UniProtKB/TrEMBL annotation:
<dbReference type="InterPro" id="IPR002293">
    <property type="entry name" value="AA/rel_permease1"/>
</dbReference>
<feature type="transmembrane region" description="Helical">
    <location>
        <begin position="250"/>
        <end position="271"/>
    </location>
</feature>
<dbReference type="GO" id="GO:0005886">
    <property type="term" value="C:plasma membrane"/>
</dbReference>
<feature type="transmembrane region" description="Helical">
    <location>
        <begin position="445"/>
        <end position="468"/>
    </location>
</feature>
<feature type="transmembrane region" description="Helical">
    <location>
        <begin position="89"/>
        <end position="110"/>
    </location>
</feature>
<keyword id="KW-0812">Transmembrane</keyword>
<dbReference type="InterPro" id="IPR029485">
    <property type="entry name" value="CAT_C"/>
</dbReference>
<feature type="transmembrane region" description="Helical">
    <location>
        <begin position="208"/>
        <end position="230"/>
    </location>
</feature>
<feature type="domain" description="Cationic amino acid transporter C-terminal">
    <location>
        <begin position="505"/>
        <end position="555"/>
    </location>
</feature>
<dbReference type="GO" id="GO:0015171">
    <property type="term" value="F:amino acid transmembrane transporter activity"/>
</dbReference>
<keyword id="KW-0472">Membrane</keyword>
<comment type="similarity">
    <text>Belongs to the amino acid-polyamine-organocation (APC) superfamily. Cationic amino acid transporter (CAT) (TC 2.A.3.3) family.</text>
</comment>
<feature type="transmembrane region" description="Helical">
    <location>
        <begin position="336"/>
        <end position="361"/>
    </location>
</feature>
<feature type="transmembrane region" description="Helical">
    <location>
        <begin position="292"/>
        <end position="316"/>
    </location>
</feature>
<dbReference type="Pfam" id="PF13520">
    <property type="entry name" value="AA_permease_2"/>
</dbReference>
<feature type="transmembrane region" description="Helical">
    <location>
        <begin position="57"/>
        <end position="77"/>
    </location>
</feature>
<feature type="transmembrane region" description="Helical">
    <location>
        <begin position="388"/>
        <end position="406"/>
    </location>
</feature>
Length: 586
């Protein structure tokens, strides 16, 4: 690196010179890693004011429940039961909940050891380096923005259903715009902007609002569950309406249960946003494990009870895949149609809580990405009076509102989920890498070889599951992949020692639990349709372009100015001890 270095953006000539040095700068910065201590000291200091540690474990439980239990469960349950699992969708939810809990363990280990607002971005930055963190962080933020816009538009539909007003009366049609972008939803914009104001004002007050809305939502869910058990019939667990259809509690067998689990797992997305609040938690060592794991367990119980209630209301082959609960009560009798309106109102509260938690999460991701200098530092600023990342919150709030104003729900739904699942996959890999590799002292290649071979085996299993025709050959190939995956894990466990042990909280049964999470996320990625992959490739290419044209040069400038203590993965050694932030109590 040059001994004297000016800003790459000080003039057009400087920028052109910087672009000419892009390959060398990319080679230097892309794999550069940070440390836990850096993330919690000098990197965090770039925000100016600090976020206040005002949240307790019950706040995190509330945020976790609010983030997961949105309106989607009212739809996902119907699809999974009718198409995949039948009444055994209850088991599907239990399996998906267990898998979500295992994935949540990976987030918890990082969040306790490194309680900063960056979530997955920070976790990947201290393991796989700046470029991997930026690529996944950019995709995750786009997923957040797209899904939040979709959720905001769905609020209009559910609220209209609850009060008996057609969606068309809420929206203005502009015929000169193309289909899918011609229905103007002003109410969705107002909802997004109102929540933006709340999260800018105070995280503590945001928690209070979330608690109230989540409590109301759970009351509505409890009402639906009780009505289902009261009005339902237990024979619907085993008898279809049409005798020609498969019967029993497992009408589609074990494959149906696991396909159903893959479908309903998306209902658990939301707990990851809780990890972005780690910097605002009073006692991360105690509060984060309880908050994250507790919310996943509570939501799993709620989902299982909801699916059992729905299975009792109607035989699985009569369930409306798009609106299972509302349609079930509409079909009971004229005297029970009001229940479908109650369900619409409950779903509306769920939409608001999931939107609130997701918008909190996306702002904190953007704030920490700004701290790393790969986007303008303006995004990193924390307001001294509110102790919240106001700049990031307002920018992403306006961006989300603009998309929600024009874009149809179906267009948005085809674009979400893949980025989030990819980040879950990366975090599970990162927690294994961090346990077995101490930067500067441990050879990383055995761990990298293990992670790559296990991922390839999981990809092969997924391709066989989805594309190979049923028969003995398919069962043999799936069994062979399973044996190979288990053998790879056992060999790695026996031959490669852990380089560091978490001081306060760690994922148990390492590396088995993170590997289950890796496999599950690959399996779910294989379940997504073509449009999701087109979106992922497009936004990934866009992220790479931004990194090459701006981020790598801004990061290089920051390194030259001494903003980074660690230039490359091999320069500084990272101790096996936990680098806890001294600003919180243990």
């Amino acid at each position: 690196m040059e001994s004297s270095h000016g800003s790459s953006f000080s003039s057009l000539n400087s920028y052109i010179q910087a672009l000419a040095q892009t390959p060398a700068r990319f080679a230097r910065r892309a794999g550069s890693v940070s440390t836990s201590y850096e993330e919690m000291s000098r990197v965090k200091a770039r925000s100016g004011s600090e976020m206040q540690r005002t949240l307790r474990w019950y706040d995190l439980v509330g945020f976790g429940i609010g983030g997961m239990v949105g309106a989607g469960v009212f739809v996902t349950t119907g699809h999974a039961s009718r198409v995949c699992a039948g009444p055994s969708v209850i088991i599907s939810y239990a399996i998906a909940g267990l898998c979500a809990l295992l994935s949540a363990f990976c987030y918890t280990e990082f969040a306790v050891d490194m309680p900063v607002a960056g979530g997955a971005f920070s976790y990947l930055r201290v393991t796989f380096g700046e470029f991997a963190a930026f690529l996944t962080g950019a995709n995750l933020i786009m997923d957040y923005v797209m899904s939040n816009a979709a959720v905001a538009r769905s609020f209009t539909a559910y609220l209209g259903s609850a009060i008996g007003i057609s969606t068309s009366k809420w929206r203005l049609v502009v015929h000169v715009l193309p289909d899918g972008f011609n229905e103007i939803d002003v109410f969705a914009v107002l909802v997004v902007l109102a929540i933006t104001l709340i999260i800018c004002y105070s995280t503590r007050e945001s928690s209070v609002v979330n608690m109230v809305l989540t409590a109301l939502h759970i009351l509505f869910i409890g009402f639906v569950i009780l009505m289902g058990f009261w009005k339902g019939d237990s024979k619907n667990f085993t008898e279809p309406a049409d005798p020609k259809n498969p019967s029993g509690f497992f009408p589609f067998g074990a494959p149906g249960v696991f396909n159903g689990a893959a479908m309903v797992y998306l209902s658990y997305i939301g707990y990851d946003a809780v990890s972005t609040l780690a910097e605002e938690v009073h006692n991360p060592v105690k509060d984060i494990p309880i908050g994250v794991s507790g919310s996943v367990i509570i939501v799993t119980v709620l989902y299982c009870l909801m699916s059992a209630s729905m299975s009792m209301l109607l035989p699985y082959d009569m369930i409306d895949a798009d609106a299972p609960f509302s349609a079930a009560f509409r079909g009971k009798s004229d005297g029970w149609k009001w229940v479908s309106n109650v369900i619409g109102m409950g779903a509306s509260f769920g939409i608001l809580t999931s939107l609130l938690v997701a918008m909190l999460g996306q702002a904190r991701y953007m704030c920490v990405i700004g701290r790393s200098n790969v986007v303008p530092a303006w995004f990193a600023r924390v307001h001294p009076k509110t102790s919240t990342p106001v700049n990031a919150s307002v920018f992403l709030g306006i961006f989300t509102a603009a998309i929600a104003l024009f874009t149809d729900l179906d267009v948005l739904l085809n674009l979400v989920s893949i980025g989030t699942l990819f980040v879950f996959y990366m975090v599970a890999n990162a927690v294994v890498y961090r346990r077995y590799v101490a930067i500067g002292t441990t050879n990383p290649w055995p761990t990298l070889a293990f992670l790559c071979s296990f991922s390839l085996t999981s990809i092969l299993f997924t391709l066989i599951w989805h594309f190979m025709p049923q028969g003995k050959g398919k069962a043999f190939m799936l069994g062979a992949c399973s044996v190979i995956a288990i053998a790879i894990m056992q060999l790695f466990h026996c031959l490669v020692p852990q380089a560091r042990k978490p001081e306060f909280w760690g994922v148990p049964l390492m590396p088995w639990i993170p590997c289950v999470s890796i496999f599950l996320n690959i399996f779910l990625l294989g379940s997504l349709g073509g449009p999701s992959y087109v979106r992922f490739v497009f936004f990934s290419a866009l992220a790479v372009l931004v990194y090459v044209l701006y981020s790598v040069h801004a990061s290089f400038d920051a390194e030259a100015e001494g903003s980074f203590g660690q230039k490359n993965g091999g320069i500084l050694k990272e101790s096996g001890e936990s680098d806890q932030d001294p600003s919180f109590k243990v």
